[in-house]
Amino acid sequence: MYVFPVTTRLRRTASLFTFLFGTVASGCGGTAAPEDAGSDSPQVNTCDSAIDCNDGLFCNGVEMCAPASALADERGCIDAEAPPCAAAVCDEAQDSCGSCEDDADGDSARSIACGGNDCDDDDPNRFPGNLEVCDSVDQDCDPATVGDVDLDNDQAIDDACCNGAVCGTDCDETRPNVNRLAPEVCDGFDNDCNTRIDEGVLVPSWPDADNDGWGDAAATPTMTCTVATGRVTRGGDCNEGNVLIHPEATEFCNSVNDDCDGSIDENGAAVCEATLPGSEALCQNGECVITGCNGTRVDCNGVFTDGCEVDVCTSPAACDGCGLPCQAQATCGGGQCSHNRSFPYSLTVLRDALTGEPIPGATITVLGTCISYGAVTNEQGAFELIYRNGLVRIEAPGYPVHIQPRSPVTGSYGPLISQAALDAWLASEDLTADPTRAIVIANFVDDMQNLDPLIRTTRGGTHHYVDGGVFSPGTQEPDQVLLNVLPGRARVGGSVNVNGCGSSCEVEAELSLEPGTVTYVDGFRCTTVCA
């Protein structure tokens, strides 16, 4: 005969009492007490456990306490998911499923197959209400509990405590700041138990040998909690030997990548103009080149580092033009000295260098002055101009723009090389003129053909000899051409030592070279010294 556990007997007694009491009350005309104290019985308090939801009946299964469920009643209880006897006839009177062996392990907990909640009826150490210990076994038949081992008192259970796939969240019970809910800090430990150490909190650093605040771009950054002396938290420095070179440096015109962006001298023109007062400038081959002056400012001294240093409208030392000083104690205003100063006029004819023919309709403008001086050649190519030692710009139909000094040979300006003659020579030599550069053509007066080359300039350019009949007929010596010269102020000349004699020649006047223009010079001053 099967012996019910004590709890079962008490439940059966209560059920029998309820049944008898209800019968008597009904027979006496009173209201019968409800037989099912389950989900349809009104309760005030919300359940705390499944015991609070037990309706005393066996065959409808074990009710559960689940206040958060959408199926819960006002007490927070939900019905059993399925009746206990899936494979046998349920016996409410015996609280059993036919001949089901409902407590095979003797732990006083009915097996799930027999309508109970013992998750393992073959193991007396596994039943609801049992003490859950830290291992991989579910002692209390509740998969959500894993034990209570928390040696470091951080409110996180040791991750060695598991029920199936559910485990504790503490991977180090010796450190209270280590568990899966802890933030990762930079201390050399895996604080958040994700098998990585100090992730997201390490600081990258690069060596900074020149102490400019930027680390070596070629170095591999080191990840550490703190940045050591001599290291910085940003890389990108392309030159650790120069404190002035780094990604935030100013780019200068110096053929150096100052700001480490891979480009050299970008925005060089703006840099040059900012450092050369009153000038229009370009950055060419790491050097600032003055290509023009603003307003009435002039580069009288030919020194590139101080820009267009003179305002010829107000400077007594260069009133209305370089080399035109006022007399002692006189002032300069509007290009006029406070004393009277007369200027001689020159009358001359502008001619073609190759044909010797006069050039009518050419506009001649004096450069580097405060007051505008100019002239236009008449039908005979003649013009009258206030004498100046400076430069003039000559513009004539059929000719490239010429910027020329006064010829010491003719005492005037010109001659001009026609565009046709220039193009023909370029084609014959298979050469191309760069429109951003200038051309200098020199004609010899002295017999200095031993000089090779006679002319050169710090502005560079490709040197060519040209037969004298091409540009300057009637001369025996060949002309020399500097093709594609950098714009800017320049002097042309050259020197050579032959058989112990050193010879040098230069143009007395200073030149102003502009993009796309031609400068024709003659009258070299030459000296020869022999040992």
Arrangement of strands in the largest sheet: 18-17-20-21
Distance between the termini: 145 Å
Poorly predicted runs: 1-43, 447-451
* Helix run count: 4
- How much beta, percentage-wise? 15-25%
Helix content: under 10%
- What overall form do the CA principal axes indicate? rod-shaped
Instruction: Give me the Rg, rounded.
Output: 53 Å
Oligomer state of the chains in this structure: single chain
**In terms of structural class, how would the helical and strand content be classed?**
mainly beta
- Major sheet size, sense and barrel closure: 4 strands, antiparallel
Mean of pLDDT:
81
User: What is the number of E strands?
Assistant: 30
Describe the structure.
The protein is built from 4 helices and 30 strands. By secondary structure, the chain is mostly beta strands. It has a domain at 419-530. A 4-stranded antiparallel beta sheet has the order 18-17-20-21, with no helix packed on it. The longest helix has 22 residues, at 6-27. The N and C termini lie far apart (145 Å). The model is unreliable at 1-43 and 447-451 (pLDDT under 50).
Task: Give a nutshell description of this structure.
By secondary structure, the protein is mainly β. Helix content is 8%, strand content 22%. A hairpin with a 7-residue loop joins strand 17 and strand 18.
